Amino acid sequence: MHDHWRGRERYTVFDSDYGDGAAVRALFDAWRADPQRPARLHVVALADGLMPGFHRIPQDEAGLSLDLLAAPLDAALAQLSASLDAIRLHRVSAPGAAFARPLARLTALGARLMASGLDEEQRGALQQQGFVFDGDQAVFASRKPRLPLTPTPERRALVIGAGLAGSSAAWRLCARGWQVTLLERHPRPAMEASGNLAGIFMPLLSRDDNIPTRLTRAAYLYALRQWEQLGGVGRAIEGQACGVLQLARDPAHAAVSRALAAENTLPPGFARWLEPGPAEALLGLPAPDGGWLFPQGGWARPGSVCETMLAACGAGLQQRFGVGGVSLERAGEEWIARRKDGAELGRAPTVVLANGAGALQLPQAAALPISLLRGQVSHLDAGQAPALPLVLCREAYLTPAANGIVCAGATYDLDSDPQLRAASHEENLARMRALVSDPQAALDAPLLGRVGFRCVAPDRLPLVGRLPDFASAGSTERLRDVPRHPGLHALLGYASRGLIWAPLAAELLAAQLEGEPLPLEMNLVDALDPARFVLRARRSSRVPLID
Q1: What is the side-by-side strand order in the sheet with 131-134?
Q2: How far is residue 267's CA from residue 35's CA, in Å, rounded to a whole number?
Q3: Of 182, 186, 383, 431, whose CB has the highest number of CB atoms within 10 Å?
Q4: Whole-angstrom Cα distance, residue 257 to residue 279?
């Protein structure tokens, strides 16, 4: 394999059985020892013992990436986006040869296959797809048309917005050797929705493991891994990995949760259902219907996450704060960002819009169906709220005290008032009292807190990827056929989950730009594609009106 990867920019290996990881570790060691190694080595492997889905595992070296796929072979291949240069097929336990076609779809011409334990049907199916065998090894020589490889990009980008979305984008691009100019209208990072004192991080559960649940789980697990690589919550990042207890809303909600827990599909380190007794013993407060404990959850100050990510960017990052509103114009193969007075702020072939609803001020993004939701958080003196061992939530949330302050919130208001107001404060306090079962809690709490505005899409999912050209869409019916603005990309619509959405969304976008294996299943990638709203608009326009 080593002679096969030499002289390449990137090289991707697929392994049908990660096992104990020894083979992958040996491959990584061989890459480190080879002076003629490819700049980037990607390993994608099937693995047991993980929650369902794709798992990107951060590596210490920027040139290495590892994706572990917890799915059957044929299903994993059907959802994978990658160009495979080498394949190891062994311990293929699934009967039949359904994996052969999706494997061939992903395989680059001239790729090498090493196989063991294949039966005649499986071997024959691979031969029909273009694999030419010599013993237990094969070379892929299909004559079928191949999708063109993503060319090596010119690694220069403008990132607009220095909140969680923009800071994550700068970090993941700089990690790949990009030169990034970060433009922020405020005088420092994280001054809008990312400026709250505390954001909570926790997964989402559902009986049917739907798309929002799967996406949120993938983002949550990836964020935990990436934060640990940055130094960890409670250390490099201000916050506490203290756990989150999400109380059941009522007996009916508790019954649904209990049924989900009885299926025994959730590892206890990820989520654990607590009946009222154990929940109350943990919390020290009433929990009449029980709740879900997320032991790895907690809270973090979003601004400290931004600061830590930006510090990790190194010399590849240029930061420009206080630039005010920004306009974009296309000049040849580049975008030029200008201040309102026309002064040039930077130029690059790639632009990432990570400025929330501010993106709507740009003509290229004005048609995106994103909106703002006002959120007011109340700040309480630590003595005005119960002392909590973890984050407590239901319809609202309450954090443990930090620096003498407890955060309670947040409201969901449909207006644009940036000022603190008494009605929203009282709403937060009423929900907090219901949460802790104490009608007397914080009765005289003064009006203190913060107002932020969440950027929200109609389906409450982020917008990650190339920006669609709505005006040129015509009668487009498929995502891949939607026309796009060249070099213009979105990281928008994180709603109230920006803390965990930001790292994975930025990693996904960086992988798309580089032509790397994507860290999510393709149906989840499609669920985040900003062009989904082009197709939905067309479908809605075809619905007949009924008088």
Answers
A1: 53-57, 64-70, 40-46, 10-15, 84-89, 107-115, 137-140, 131-134
A2: 42
A3: 182
A4: 14
Interatomic CA distance for residues 121 and 197, integer angstroms: 60
Beta bridge partners of 430: none
Q: What is the pTM of this model?
A: 0.95
Evaluate the CA torsion angle 261, 228, 236, 351 in order and state its sign: negative
Half-sphere exposure of 109 toward its Cβ, with a 13 Å CA cutoff?
A: 9
CB 508 within 8 A of CB 520: yes
- Rounded CA separation 32/456 (Å): 43
Q: Which amino acid makes up residue 463? A: L
Strands 137-140 and 107-115, sheet pairing: antiparallel
For residue 195, give the DSSP letter.
G
Query: Do the beta carbons of residue 392 and residue 294 sit within 8 Å?
Result: no
Question: HEC profile for 408-454?
Answer: EECCCECCCCCCCCHHHHHHHHHHHHHHHCCCCCCCCCCCCEEEEEE
pLDDT tens for 377-409 read 999 999 999 999 999 999 899 999 999 999 999
Task: List the one residue out of 296, 228, 299 whose CA is nearest residue 268.
Answer: 296
- In sequence order, the 6+-apart residues with CB closer than 8 A to the CB of 197 are 301, 377, 379, 402, 405, 407, 450
State both tokens at 153.
Answer: 């990009």
Q: Which of 172, 163, 296, 288 is nearest to 234 (CA)?
A: 296
Model confidence pLDDT, tens digit, residues 413-466:
999 999 999 999 999 999 999 999 999 888 889 999 999 999 999 999 999 999
Q: In this structure, which amino acid lies at residue 261? A: A
